Amino acid sequence: MTSPALAERLDGLLFFPVTAFGPDGGLDLDAFRAHVRAGVDAGAAAVFACCGTGEFHALTPEEFGACVRAAVEETAGRVPVVAGAGYGTALALQYAGIAEEAGADGLLAMPPYLVVADQEGMLRHYAALAAGTGLDVIVYQRDNAVFTPETVIELAKVPNIIGLKDGLGDLDLMQRIVSAVRTALPDRDFLYFNGLPTAELTGLAYRGIGVTLYSSAVYAFSPEIALAFHKALTTGDDATVNALLDGFYRPLVELRNQGRGYAVSLVKAGVRLRGLDVGEVRPPLSEPSPAHVKELAELIERGLALLADH
C-alpha cells in the first residue's frame, strides 16, 4: 500500500530539525537521530531535514545523504520527510537524487546560489529540478528568488511542484499570488507556507490571506510552546495567541534580530539549553553571545510559564 501524496500529509506543525555536529565539527548522527525522534514523538506533522535551519549550506553531499537517511529511518513513515535542495540546477538535481535514494518524500527547493536571475530563468531552473526527480517539490521564495504571480502560476502547472514557501514576508505580493493562482488554476490544490524565520509572529496576518501552514523554528527547542501556539492559532483562541506573541515570540524575534545568523545559531543554542548537545554552528555562521544565550534561556522559561497560565 502506497502512502498518500505529500500534499495530503502536510497538515500540522512543520519541524525543521537542526543538524548535530560533534566537538570535532563532524556530523553527530546519534544526536541528530535523537533530535528528530523527539520532534516526531512530540507531535510534528512533517520533518524538513537539511534545510535552512539544518545548515544545508554547510553540508557535504555525503553528510546530506546520511542525515536524510537517518531522518527517514527515525520517522519510520509516521510523518513525511522533506529534504533541502539548492545551489545551481545541476547540483540541485544531484541533491534531489541523493534525497530520493535516501527515501525522502519531497524537496524544499531553496534559492539558486549567488546569481539574481530573471523570472524566465528561475522558472526554467525549478521546472528542470521538478522534471529530474520523482519527488514532490516545494519552492522556497526568499532572498534572490522572488516570484511574480504569473511565474507562480507557471510553477503551479508543473504536476510535482505542490507549493510555495514564503520567506519574504510581502503580504501584498502573497495575496496577489494566492488570488492569481486560484483564478488561473481553480482546480489546482496548491499549498502555501509561511516560511519567515519566526513564522508565529506573522501567523495571524498569514491566516488572514488563507495561509495556515508554517514552519516553526521554536519547535526545534520548545515543542510545548510551538504546539500550544499552533493549537491556539488554528482554533481561533486569540487570547492565548496574543499572550504568547506578547510574552514570548515578539521578544524572541527582537533577540534573534540582534545577531546575523541567529535564525539558525540561536535555535541551535535553544536545543542545547533543553538538554540535547547538538554542537555549534559551522562557519561562516557564529555562535550567539553568552548574554544572548542567557536571555534565550529566560525567554524559554517565560514561554513555558505562560502555558501554565493558559
Q: What's a concise summary of this model?
A:
By secondary structure, this protein is an alpha/beta fold. It has helices at 6-9, 29-42, 61-75, 89-102, 119-131, 149-156, 171-184, 203-208, 223-235, 238-256, 262-273, 290-309, and strands at residues 14-15, 46-49, 81-85, 106-109, 136-141, 161-166, 191-194, 213-216.
Q: Roughly what percent helix? A: 40-55%
- Look at the helices and sheets and give the structural class: alpha/beta
Characterize the biggest β-sheet.
Answer: 8 strands, parallel, barrel
Beta-strand percent range: 5-15%
User: What integer value in Å does the Rg equal?
Assistant: 18 Å
How are helices and strands ordered from N to C?
HEHEHEHEHEHEHEHEHHHH
* Strand line-up in the sheet with most strands: 1-2-3-4-5-6-7-8
Shape: globular
Distance between the termini: 42 Å
**Overall average residue pLDDT:** 96
Give the total of beta strands: 8
Number of helices: 12
Uncertain segments of ≥5 residues (pLDDT<50)? none
Tell me what the structure shows.
The structure is a single chain. The protein has 310 residues and is of the alpha/beta class. Helix content is 49%, strand content 11%. The protein contains twelve helices and eight strands. The chain has an eight-stranded parallel β-barrel with strand order 1-2-3-4-5-6-7-8, surrounded by five helices. Helix 2 (29-42) packs parallel to helix 3 and helix 4 packs parallel to helix 5 (119-131). The radius of gyration is 18 Å and the shape is globular. The chain starts with 5 loop residues before the first helix and ends with a helix.
